[in-house]
Amino acid sequence: MNYSTSQFKNGLKLMLDGNPCSIVNNEIVKPGKGQAFNRVKFKDLITGKTLEKTFKSGESLEAADVMELEMQYLYSDGEKWHFMDPESYEQFDLGRESMGNALNYLVEQDKCIVTLWNNNPISVSPPNHVTLEVIDTDPGLKGDTAGTGGKPATLNTGVVVQVPLFVAIGDKVKVDTRTNEYTGRA
Amino acid sequence: MNILGVPNYPQMPSVKEKLLQHQNRIRTIRDFFYSHSIVEVITPSLLISPTTDVYIDSIEVSVNHALLKSSNFYLHTSPELEMKRLLAKGSGDIFQICQVFRDNEHGSINSNEFTMLEFYRLGIDMHQLIEEIQELLIALGKNDIVKKISYAQAFFDYAEIDILNSNFEDLKNILKSHGLSADYDWIEDMQMVLFVHLIEPKIKTFPVCFIYDFPKQQAALAKIDGLVAHRFEMYINGTEIANGYQEIETANEYRDRFETELDKRKSLSKSIGSIDEVFLADLKDGLPPCSGVAIGIERLFNSLSL
Question: d(Cα B298, Cα B303) in Å, to the nearest integer?
């Protein structure tokens, strides 16, 4: 199945240079004295890189068979990260290179979005907010409850996040995975 | 909330405020031309011949059906030829603000109907006309720094391409190297896709940018001088706002340009009309040396601060 430039819209998944890509921005440019073009920004769903291409109106691209499914993260054996579709109980695994920043935030049993291309997993997105446990941080200074300043804390996934001074080892904290920022105590 | 429990939106101008603002801007434009002794004209918008431009489509209308004298006209896509007939008859400097109509142009910044400001100035060249447009922008309160760069220099600076000395095969290879389709029949179409792809995103950072001296293959109705045509465009943050020429002057040159465009329309299986012979007859003694420009009013006004 092919999509023509007139059907282009944000989020449409198309094949580009052999990789599945998602349209991030689609701009129609009609030079006064020229034909119409679509100047399109894509995100390569495998490499995560952004690409820009310009098509003349009427060109078409092959659709990419891409699905985004909510799955449960089961466990990692160190080489592969294993996920399960809770509807079908089908299991999928990804290598480290496809895990991206999800490595920093997923703990077993967490829900996340796994992207499948031709039924093969190609990437995983953690939830926007996760709750993780502080496993290492300097003890806070007594009396400093205002939380100004902050300090680094290592969480149970290994990720390091800036936290207020009053946060202690063993505390559960909420983290925004898009910015890697502490958003509060859980 | 006000006393009636209706929310107040202090930032949203009312319809009347918007209309007054539009009126004030149009008045500023008219005052600008009146003060330069440039005469305002109104020319017909129902024309006997459609435009010959390969990538502009006229809207056809049928009239006088009930009078049993039905005939077809075309809404003007720009007032250019009708204004040039006046120039040929000795009008001197003229300007016009009018609605123009184009088929198959519809989108977020394109419309089948839009407002055009078109003006012609006798005895000045492209660069002098660009200076006058800058004065008009200042009159409208647009005081941004203006970038002015030739088409060729823009390609050198922003894409490291020698656009004027790249032939058909060179451009195909450049398109392929950027992962773009090279399925184009004419060199000018490849120049244009490269401009849209490589140059426009770079000139988005300029509040006002004039690009001048287009490759001769994109001369349209501008005078050719070596490899370039004295044609320019004005971009505001990367969006095309105006297109101007140092105008060709003889009927023969116009006939050649029209025929070239019609041949292209034929090869694209687009509708074609007859060449406007009345226009060419009116030009038998030629146009006086002049430069002219068309400016998209909605796009221009959208770029002005409130």
Answer: 9
**Contact criterion met (CB < 8 Å) for B201 and A17:** no
Interface of A with B (CB under 8 A): 17, 28-37, 39, 51-56, 59
User: Residue B2 contacts by C-beta under 8 Å, 6 or more apart in sequence?
Assistant: B8
For B15-145+207-302, the fitting CATH number among 3.40.50.300, 3.20.20.80, 3.30.930.10, 2.40.37.10 is: 3.30.930.10
Range with lowest mean pLDDT among A111-120, A133-142, B134-143, B188-197: A133-142
**Of B93, B144, B147, which Cα lies nearest the Cα of B118?**
B93
| Domain coordinates in residue numbering, chain B | 15-145+207-302
The angle formed by the CA atoms of residues B11, B13 and B15, to the nearest 5 degrees, is: 155
* ipTM attached to this prediction: 0.89
- Rounded to two decimals, what is the model's pTM? 0.86
Q: Which two tokens stand for residue B161?
A: 């391409």
pLDDT computed for residue B3 by the predictor = 61
- Residues of chain B in contact with residue A56, where contact means CB-CB under 8 angstroms, are 181, 184, 189, 193
Higher-confidence position of B11 and B23 = B23
B262 φ/ψ angles, rounded to the nearest 5 degrees: -65, -40
Domain annotation for chain A: domains and CATH numbers: 2-62 (2.30.30.30), 66-125 (2.40.50.140), 129-185 (2.40.50.140)
Q: Kindly report, residue by residue over B202-254, the tens digit of the pLDDT.
A: 999 999 999 999 999 999 999 999 999 999 999 999 999 999 999 999 999 99
Tokens coding A105: 């935030």
The closest CB to that of B218, out of A30, A33, A52, belongs to A33
Is A42 within 8 Å of A15 (Cβ atoms)? no
Q: What is the pLDDT of residues B186-213, one digit of tens each?
A: 999 999 999 999 999 999 999 999 999 9
Say whether B284 sits in a helix, a strand or coil: coil
In chain B the beta strands, taken as DSSP E runs, fall at 39-40, 46-47, 60-63, 71-75, 94-101, 113-122, 146-150, 208-215, 224-225, 228-236, 239-246, 290-296
Q: Are strands A151-155 and A91-95 parallel, antiparallel or unpaired?
A: unpaired
> How far apart, in whole angstroms, are the C-alpha atoms of residue A16 and residue B14?
46
How far away is chain B from the Cα of A21, in angstroms, using its nearest Cα? 14
Q: Residue B159 is inside which H or E element, if any?
A: helix B151-159
